[in-house]
Amino acid sequence: MSKDFRKDFPIFEGNNTIYFDNAATTQRPRQVIEAMKNFNDTCNANPLRGLYAWSVQATDAYENARHTAAEFIGADKDCEVIFTRNTTESLNLVAYSYGLSHLHEGDEIVLTVMEHHSNILPWQMVCARTGAKLVYMEPEKDGTLTDAEIESKITDRAKIVTVGHVSNVLGITNPVKKIGEAAHRHGAVFVVDGAQSTPHIPVNVQEIGADFYAFSGHKLLGPMGIGGLYGRKELLEDMPPFLTGGEMIEYVTRESATFAEVPEKFEAGTVNAMGAVGMEAAMNYIRDEVGFDTIEKQELALTTRMLDGLSKIPEVTVYGSRDPAKHCGIVTFNIEGCHPHDVASVLDTEHICVRAGHHCAQPLMKWLGVGATARASLYFYNTEEEVDRFVAAVGKVRTWLGY
Amino acid sequence: MDIKSLYREIVNEHNLHPEHKHDLDNPTMVLNGVNPSCGDDINLQLKIENGIVTDAAFNGSGCAISQASTDMMCDQIIGKSEEEALSLAGDFKDMIHGTATQEQKDALDEAAALEDISHMPARVKCAMLGWRTMKEMIEDLQKNGTKTAQVSANNSEVCGSCQRTDCDRK
């Protein structure tokens, strides 16, 4: 790395903890905290309502954050970005608002077996209420979705096609553009879960052909509790509100109401303006201070080193592709004989943070034929020295567990 | 005791060479215990005759802590009355939550070696699995007189306070 980005992250100061759980959440640079503090210290007021200077400034800050988010994911218009709490809420918004109002018995929702639970459960709910049915696309052993699989599962019965852009377990990037084309050819809308992609690769929702695209702030260096949903304007305008209440209305009488335009129609209640400002600072930091070229280069170098190191430990199985470029910094593994929770507990004694369990992807665990796995997930601020310490520690886990 | 020592000195032996991990010939009760969030899955088998646990064994898979703790529990309850076994389950739960008296720890004998799990909140439910399953079986026996309990995922009930299925407080 040309610049030591770690200096921007207070949490790394004065300790040697190796943080390899970036697919769960990322650390925050001081630029993000400063932007939020600046909002707090200079213009904290309820946006969109007040007629005084602080509220106007708060509204500007919030709407600037929307503009930055729209640019970050390549949206055509700012109003196509709705602020939510996180990816889960974004996907629920699409399911409750679009799904329930557009699907009927016999319709199909096509997804993949590698989805995170947050891109499965909302659709199970839609199916239970409408009589629609889920159709799963099955990848090859390394996680690749073939053209044949895409073509055979997406038919004229499909009304929604929804896929994770990057798998949170295998790390593979799905052929979203191709899947989107198939969806549109059959008249379905295309939903993309961007939780794992937006932090790591440049995203352009228009190029992908996404009708909806969901993402979280905390996975891209921003604060927890703020995320977004991109939706094509024509679709959003035609959809009923998800939540109702304050801030999302035009006129309210005793019996009825008319709703505000998008995006306000989908942002009921006082918004998380400070969170939006924090996410904006995080997006600016990723795009302008670090750059996606640096992110991809560093993650590839680290993943290559990690896969190479782990391949020399005979008892280690790595899931997904053998090609480090197809991991997006995510390395999911098991050590023969060792339960992943024990692996994570002993790695913790070496100050190494990894995730263990089913990673909110139980259908994928079943597909892999395992109950649980351990996962190391990298980001640009991780180092080769950390990877080496990690590989050395993994090599000792079986000894620590008595083998 | 740090975690590595805990594994080295206590958990590994019971996990890798469990004395009670096998099927019983004629169990009077059998029940599956599951921690859904971890995938820990044990099948606990008890032989209870005239109010005494005359034999106990288990099968299944899971993390080292869940397997070792269940093995140690079987050691402790064999030869005990139903009431004594239930009392030990209470002692163990208190110990894992850091509230047990010295008397309670003494009663737990070798199982008291898992006391340091109380400093590993993420692993409490692993250590509790065997004890929780045994408690449910004996309570069911006492309440309903069930001779052979249905094989079922007993720990999928929802905790009254936090609404989670994997909570050990329920």
Overview of the molecule:
The complex is a heterodimer of chains A (403) and B (170). Chain A is an alpha/beta fold and 403 residues long. Chain A has 2 domains: 257 residues, Aspartate Aminotransferase, domain 2, CATH 3.40.640.10; 110 residues, Aspartate Aminotransferase, domain 1, CATH 3.90.1150. Chain A is built from 13 helices and 15 strands. The radius of gyration of chain A is 22 Å and the shape is globular. The model of chain A has no long low-confidence stretch (mean pLDDT 96). Chain B has a single domain, classed as Sufe protein. Chain: A, CATH 3.90.1010. Chain B has 5 helices and 3 strands, in the order αβββαααα. Chain B has 170 residues and is α+β, with helices and mostly antiparallel strands. Chain B is 42% helix and 16% strand. Chains A and B meet through α11 of A and α1 of B.
Secondary-structure blueprint of this entry?
The complex is a heterodimer of chains A (403) and B (170).
Chain A: E1 18-19, H1 30-42, H2 53-73, E2 81-84, H3 87-102, E3 108-112, H4 121-130, E4 133-137, H5 147-153, E5 158-164, H6 176-185, E6 189-193, H7 205-208, E7 212-216, E8 227-231, H8 233-238, E9 249-252, E10 257-259, H9 273-290, H10 292-311, E11 316-318, E12 330-335, H11 340-349, E13 352-353, E14 355-357, H12 362-368, E15 373-377, H13 384-400
Parallel strand pairs in A: 1-13, 3-4, 3-5, 5-6, 6-7
Antiparallel strand pairs in A: 2-8, 7-8, 9-10, 11-12, 12-15, 14-15
Chain B: H1 3-16, E1 29-35, E2 40-49, E3 52-61, H2 64-77, H3 82-96, H4 102-108, H5 124-144
Antiparallel strand pairs in B: 1-2, 2-3
Helix pairs in contact in B: 1-2, 2-5, 3-4, 3-5
Structural descriptors:
heterodimer, A: 403 residues, alpha/beta, Aspartate Aminotransferase, domain 2, Aspartate Aminotransferase, domain 1, 13 helices, B: 170 residues, alpha+beta, Sufe protein. Chain: A, 5 helices, disordered C terminus
